[in-house]
Specification:
Blueprint (H helix, E strand, L loop, with lengths): L1 E7 L2 H13 L3 E3 L16 E5 L23 E5 L2 E3 L2 E3 L1 E6 L3 H21 L1 E3 L2 E3 L1 H8 L3 E3 L5
Parallel strand pairs: 1-9, 6-10
Antiparallel strand pairs: 1-7, 2-3, 3-4, 4-7, 5-6, 8-9
Length: about 150
């Protein structure tokens, strides 16, 4: 089973969310041990919020460079971003397996969800950050992914 929360963010909203996650003890890590997370979410938006630093992750594959929430206590994090004129949807995802990792990440996932629900407005099943709200008012279009 998985649980996720979806949202639209402007750059400041994204920074606040990442700062909050970091304050809980999360590290922003790439899906590959040999890559860094770009400061520009539009370049490589998917990463992990990991409870362990990069140096303690358990990479796999041949060569062993891939990272997964199946091997380390981490939440999937598709970072939302703004690329004019589009606001691109993001989400944070928790999975229930393996159970020894899920029990470590669930309390933190719940804290992040609570923070998002408190800080941002809801539109249907999606939350909208404060800066994103202003960008929508100015004409930004909400999309799941950038048009080709």
């Amino acid at each position: 089973m998985t649980s996720s929360i979806s949202f639209f963010c402007g750059p400041l909203d994204n920074k606040k969310l990442q700062d909050y996650a970091t304050s809980l003890g999360f590290y922003l890590v790439s899906t590959r041990i040999d890559k860094e997370v770009s400061s520009d979410p539009s370049l490589r938006p998917y990463c992990y919020l990991s409870l362990v630093p990069k140096s303690m992750l358990h990479p796999f594959g041949n060569p062993p460079v891939r990272v997964s929430s199946a091997l380390d206590p981490a939440l999937g994090f598709m970072r939302a971003y703004f690329q004019k004129p589009y606001l691109v949807l993001g989400h944070i995802q928790w999975t229930d397996g393996p159970s020894n990792l899920a029990c470590q990440t669930l309390p933190y996932y719940r804290k992040i969800v609570k923070w998002i629900k408190k800080e941002w407005g809801k539109h249907g099943d999606i939350y909208i950050g404060n800066e994103a709200k202003s960008l929508i008012t100015e004409g930004a279009e909400r999309v799941n992914s950038l048009p080709s």
